[in-house]
Amino acid sequence: MKEVETVATYFGRVMIVANDMRNCGEEISDGKIVEKILRTLTERFNNVVCSIEESKDIELLTVDALQSSLTVHEQKFTRRQSIENDQDL
Prior knowledge:
- The chain is mainly alpha-helical.
- The chain has helices at residues 7-23, 30-40, 46-55, 63-88.
- The mean pLDDT is 92.
- It holds the Pfam family Retrotran_gag_2.
């Protein structure tokens, strides 16, 4: 994931690649996609990745559920940054 990239954009890129692999005959499970996404997130997601890995069965976690969790975290992070920037003015 790129540092300036949103969760939705990154998931879109990953799913395009995963679907291309599936179209070529590769058997790739949602669990494998979830693991790949968790390994490739930026450092600002480290805390939420640890929480997800500790509290959920990664093999049973769907891509949509992961995206929802990460989007909520991203929104909180963005909101916090916005408030801090407003206070600096």
